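dude i think i finally got it to work??
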Amino acid sequence: MAQEQEFEFNLPPQFDKITKNIRMIIVGIVAVMAALSSFFTVETEEVGVILRFGKYVGEATPGLNFKLPFVDQVEFVPVQRQLKQEFGYRTASAGVNTTYRKAGYGGESLMLTGDLNLGDVEWVVQYRIDDPYNYLFKVRNVDETLRDVSEAAMRQVVGDRTVNEVLTVGRAEVASEVEVILQDISNEYEMGITIEQVVLQDANPPDPVKPSFNGVNEAQQQRETLINQARADYNRVIPRADGEAQQTIQQAEGYALDRVNRATGEVSRFNDLYAEYIKAPEVTKKRIFLETMEDILPKMGQKIITDEKGNSVIPLLQLQMDGVKSNTNSPQN
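look at this
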């Protein structure tokens, strides 16, 4: 056999130097990436959940935090932010002129009531994340689960009520009951969320029957208006009539009491006079006569008093007439 020849390939010294530089550059890049990936910032409304090889190891508070590079991962959970889910509509744009989009979401809001009528109920669920660990690891896709549970709870509550209750007086009660059901299910599933509020944005009959339903509502409102007007008239007229009746009764009672008291006093006075008259008839008669004349004479005008034998009355009457004429002709001040 021919003797094998061995060949030795020697690289030039310049190539070794280039390789060494490339290695140093790669190490530097890896070191920079490790340094950059070792720090992360958590916003004020968030919590950072640290995962090491996919396993939960702790939480990071808002601010600048450290983690192991290339090993730890961070999931940011907005625990201080109020989240919401809309049913039957979507907010197209928020701000001063908020617009909503309803097309394509009728299947969420159209539901059957307890009296076998249809109602178009639009609502929103507002909630917060209170346990980041449960939110991330206990239930897969919490948001979709909450949406399904919310729709099922609303259909359950609406199905136990009449359409009038859902569309008018029972809206607040429906929202409150749905909120309780959602919180109970969230606690049972360990979803890590707190239901803050369920709000019925709008509740209407379906479009084909909306004109008829509006006509019924207008008739009911008109009936309530007439009832309220009648009650107002009743409250205005009846109390006044009662007051006038009471006033008339009190005036009659006062008048009757005054007349009775006057009559009683006069009877008592007459009895006293009669008792004195029995004791001394002539003296009492004369005293009564004098008292009567004393009361009557001051009310008379000029008067002439004579005895039974008076014969000179005419000159006195002429003198009296002359005095009246002189008083009449005298100038007034």
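The two ends are 181 Å apart (CA to CA).
im so relieved honestly
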